[in-house]
Structure of Inositol-1-monophosphatase:
Amino acid sequence: MADQWQEAYDFAVQVARAAGAVIRKAGECEIKVQTKSCTVDLVTQTDERVEKIIIGSLKEQFGEGTHCFIGEESVAKGEPCILTDKPTWIIDPVDGTTNFVHGFPFVAVSIAFAVNKELEFGVIYSCLEDKMYKARKGRGAFCDDEPIQVSDVKDIHKSIIISEHGTDRDKQKVKKIFSTMQKILCIPVHGLRGSGTAATNMCLVASGATEAFFEIGIHCWDIAAGAVIVKEAGGVLLDVDGGPFDLMSRRMISANNMVIAERIIKEIEIFDSVRDDAPIQKK
Ligand SMILES: Nc1ncnc2c1ncn2[C@@H]1O[C@H](CO)[C@@H](O)[C@H]1OP(=O)(O)O
Ligand SMILES: [Mg+2]
């Protein structure tokens, strides 16, 4: 059925915009911060509240039994993070929580929808910039309803590359991250950047502002919506070892084309991270 998920797609855009308004308002008040896995892994009442609003609205619209939900804060509370063939919403209510806490102006709501383990659409609302990015499989990518496209740069020396440091402060991992950054910077490339939100970084690749974004340590809810948006904007998604993109693997490179992706992959020093769909006791 060609237009089966159009209603869900349109509804996701509405929900993301409403969620972004809640985040903007919350940012005007005092933000109470708590920590999750470590002292730099932050969470606020807004993350939890917004996830409840998003999942509540989707359940009300589409029924509780037929659709599944993977949300960052629900998983943090012990809900499973397994992608099945059922229609599944993958949600990051506040991507860039550290930015939100500090008033650094890139914070995004990320909502993706998968069926039969395949991503059907993604919506990312960069709520402080008030930019709505969206894409549906086979239908192109858009920012505020204008079509977007990846950059056509093939020469790595003319590129800007994005990566992030994540929240793990294990010395060996940090060393590898910085060693990778140093090697890429000295290729040389025009510059290295990082907005602090994986979702926004992927929108920057999709809209041609940067050639690639890669990270090890991210979660499926950080990149699911962005994956559709990058792909529909003409870009590519790969594992950081050059293999196929795996949503649950905690690592990925998104790029404008294979030439740039493969050149960056040569420099990435890979470190282990536990898969999102690993059994909970092993995390
Ligand atoms: N352990 C981790 N390692 C790397 N990135 C992480 C991470 N946990 C979350 N991220 C996400 O990666 C980006 C910054 O590194 C953000 O999008 C952040 O999402 P968050 O703000 O929703 O936690
Ligand atoms: Mg996130």
